[in-house]
Amino acid sequence: MKILVVEDDEANADMLACILCNQNYTVEVAKDGEVAWELIVVYDYDLLLIDITLPHLDGISLCRRIRTHSYQMPILLVTGRSSSHDQAIGLDAGADAYMVKPFDHEVLIAGIRALLRRRGTAFQSVLEWGSLRFDPATREVTYAEQPLSLSPKEFSILEFFLRNGRRVFTYSVILDQLWAYEETPGEDAVRTHIKGLRQKFRRVGAPTDLIETVYGLGYRLKPLEAIADSISTDQLTSSQGTQPIQQQTLSALSKVWDRFKTRVNEQVIILEQASAALMQQMLSPDIQQQASQEAHTLSDSLATFGLPEGSRIAEKIEQLLHVNESLKSDQTLCLYELVTALRQEIDRASNDLTTERSEQEESVFANERPLLLIIDPDRQLAEQLVNEAVNWGFRSAIATTLSEAETKIEQDAPTVVLLDPDITHPTTDSLKLLAKLSHQTPAVPVLVLTSHDQLTDRLEVAQLGGHGFLHKPLPPAHVLKAIAQAAQRAEAAKQRVMVIDDDPQILATLKGFLEPWGLSVITLNDPQRFWETLESCSPDLLILDMKMSALSGVELCQIIRNDSHWGHLPIIFLTAHTDATIINQVFSVGADDFVSKPIMNPELVSRIINRLERIKLLQNAAETDHLTKLSNRRKSTQDLNKYLQLANQQNQLLCLAVLDLDNFKEINDHHGYNTGDMVMRQWGQLLRQTFRQNAVVARWESDEFVVALSSMIKADGIQRLTQLLATLHHRQFVAPDQTQFRITFSAGIAQYPDDGTDLHSLYQAASEALHQSKVAGCACIFSAGGSRASV
User: Radius of gyration (Cα) for the chain, nearest Å?
Assistant: First the structure.
């Protein structure tokens, strides 16, 4: 829980911070009303504790401003004024409670807990998750009645997850919610505390992954249904850690089997025909070769479907048919018996794997299309959009009330949402849904379709994380084009796995396994087209089958490892054989890992997830500026070129701003490099908070930063930068000798394609505008062309 204390008396502020920190709250302090307001705009707080007598902006005025801008967090006024009139003024201004100094510490904490409980059922007094019991009032945590001794930060992390039991949180969200902005730890801090919690879970017999890792996303509480089915707590491949994977796997298998059971039947028929021809001594070399190939394919695919006996039989059939000379009579009889046994195994599998659903196959795959949720009170307009969405490959759902929308989101997570904020009056609640969807993990792109078109409306949507702003009325085709672009960008953000196998059944199965885990899966059944596919899709990881008809996985691996650009691409092999010779061969050609068939167990998913997580950690280290946690120049250049390419393809605008901290060298000279580093860390955090969505934010030089804003005109970009400059103007920094100082920045901004058609020309235009802002005296913003916008 994160609390902002607004108190100008340093002793009182320190005392309140001490009391609250002792209760495991994350506390930030603002010493005047204007600074507090800037923090409230940028950061999310669970409660505000405000003194009435404040410099620059008093507590009553601050309350009114907060409520006028529709912020709903609880406000507790703390003051020495005890008259009923003063209390009435404070409550009328929007405060939820009023406490007179001096107050008892225990009463203060009880009052804060009461205010937090009012926010909803998520703030109940005692939190429980299975056998875990968490009492915030007494700070007691138990599992199966065994006490857990937690550090303050571990306590805060566990409470945060318990109050948001079904959500996945990224590292950045956890850092923003549970660390004060003066503290600037990295992702390692989160991992360290999660590891500590897991070790303490183990000691009391709780599942070690009670807070589980979600690949590429972050962490969440392990679902209760998965905990109930848990047996072991030590290995990822145990039923505890893999029950959800197993369920998804079985579901995917049944769908794939429904698609390919006819093909499997045809393959067995070919083997039966070959066996019958052999019995009559009429087996031609061509039919024998075809049957051998089908047996090889079946050996792999049946293993995938969890039919090890069928796979073993098919492998023996392949071995018999692979001989060059004619088969002897006993071998002919053996082949007949093996084919008969294979037919029996296939028939048994068909009964076990065929799903019970009665819908036609087309309806099953219709549900695999991306889902568009239209939240709009105008049903007639919504139905027009639904009809148009079919032409763009979307299935659609309509919600004409906010509660109906929330129900539909809970039942079937949408791919993209189209929202008219006027579905609620005032629009506060609908905009809360926008922020929730945009900032959850994985994020759901939200486009706003509204009759309002004020600059403030656009800015609010952008700040809340909206992926687009559309002004009614618009033709349905125009709206769907924007929706398709947003869905495309969301898909592009996924990590990509490329699977190469000449068996379409294997490809379909793996696609069904991996896509529910947030992966984009590219499949290829023709190894001859490998290189062009590799270049076009740029995967993050490869899965290769050992044996393929044209090129083997071993040969493809050798080609990749011999290439300077792709040589470090992670490769996982699939193989039905796990003898020492095969495994040595796999690793000798440069494989990173291998998974043995059948792959219906969670092993493949687990290994891919673990491998990609390690890749992501290494990439983050190589692509992120360690001080500000922003993208470095190399990474941001790649992203900027992608943004420009997309803007060119889709005829969109893009703004590029170059920012430079004013007189930063003087900070290092006067206060030391440690203070300069502190400023940089807080500045980086402010940039990350300000530009959350559809933006590239990077540090290019020591005090030079680049911000690119997609789908935004230059005027809107200037507005965003102006607000950032105002926020920075009110923020005080404190040197080790307690000297207080402020910083400013200068900026230049350019627009694609008006001021430049590529990264170099845009950067040059923005840099020239930045130079003008420096000449004009700093702390201002110039646009390419010479116009100025200052605070």
Answer: 31
